[in-house]
Amino acid sequence: MTKPSSAIETLIDMMARLPGLGPRSARRAVLYLVRKRGQLLGPLAAAMAEVAQTARECVSCGNITTGELCPICTDPRRQNGMLCVVEDVGDLWAMERTGAFVGRYHVLGGTLSALDDVGPEELGLPRLERRITDENVTEVILALNTTMDGLTTAHYVADLLEGRVRITSLAQGVPVGGELDYLDDGTIGAALKARRDL
Amino acid sequence: MTKPSSAIETLIDMMARLPGLGPRSARRAVLYLVRKRGQLLGPLAAAMAEVAQTARECVSCGNITTGELCPICTDPRRQNGMLCVVEDVGDLWAMERTGAFVGRYHVLGGTLSALDDVGPEELGLPRLERRITDENVTEVILALNTTMDGLTTAHYVADLLEGRVRITSLAQGVPVGGELDYLDDGTIGAALKARRDL
Ligand SMILES: [Zn+2]
Ligand SMILES: [Zn+2]
């Protein structure tokens, strides 16, 4: 067996590390890219290089962005005083796709977990408390996944902020054990509209 | 709804065009890449740029390579006089993974098809005929997919080369309607060993 050109093999190995792709689908994707190397592979390489150089976390909300503050934090049309707390950026994107939320976000970047040794500081909860004062927040919507760790985290945040802001969570409608990023936009939108006080 | 940063959105749109990825898996892949932007996204961008700039078709066999001739055509350990004819580079890679074939390849880049208006010239069949003379080929193994177009093409090539070389095809063992790239290595290897004269 003769090895393929090392540059192509390296590319296949890297692509196989992406979620949802294995060695076989990575080979198919690379073959497709090589066939469309003018149209797609070159532009894709450039887009990746640009994102690799410019992508960073929004210093305010934790969203992925290319500036210091993300487009949501700087958008003057977004409603002030309302923060939606999510586990990760994928969940923020899922909320945004519904178009149902007009406030701003706070991305925890995970959940409280005794097992993984993640504490309030790692989740930026002191930063959340500062935002509530600085941005005159009156409502915090907890849009965490309904997993055990998500529920634990929701209770912790609710206790932490009790008496300082209105605290709500997404309504029943999010299936127990379900992850936000896998839900259809309608379900998320309906759950947001029917959100209840904790 | 506030649009995500355009560089990230562009990247998601491009990734969604890869086979096996849709919008949802493209978002997950990009999110994963952004999280690993130092470790994976930067190197992946560089690997893609290199392949985009250097990848080309081997002038002899049609394999994808980074030089004028591919590593298989230039490998002195490969057996002379034996050519394996495949539809595309994915099939060549599938054959190579079995480690069962020691000769060289000829990639047609498709099949004869009345519908798509693909003729012998488009498939490089005159080039195949020249190779048979120039490289003193004594056996041509037809390893085409067992689809209607693949079978039509195999018959055409067999007629074209009749009396000039031994012409064999992969043995029964390749399921009818099956595509080489989806088979396990053992099946392909066994079919190659039990190849029969046409
Ligand atoms: Zn932000
Ligand atoms: Zn070659």
TrEMBL record, chains A, B:
InterPro entries: DNA_Rcmb_RecR, Rcmb_RecR, Rcmb_RecR_Znf, TOPRIM_dom, TOPRIM_RecR. NCBIfam families: recR. The lineage of its organism: Bacteria, Pseudomonadati, Pseudomonadota, Alphaproteobacteria, Rhodobacterales. A zinc finger (C4-type) spans 58-73. The keyword Iron-sulfur does not apply. Keywords: DNA damage, DNA recombination, DNA repair, Metal-binding, Zinc, Zinc-finger. PROSITE patterns: RECR, TOPRIM. Belongs to the RecR family. May play a role in DNA repair. It seems to be involved in an RecBC-independent recombinational process of DNA repair. It may act with RecF and RecO. HAMAP family: RecR. Gene3D superfamilies: 3.40.1360.10, 6.10.250.240, RecR Domain 1. GO terms for molecular function: DNA binding; zinc ion binding. It holds the Pfam family RecR_HhH. Residues 81-175 form the Toprim domain. PANTHER family: RECOMBINATION PROTEIN RECR. This is Recombination protein RecR. GO terms for biological process: DNA recombination; DNA repair.
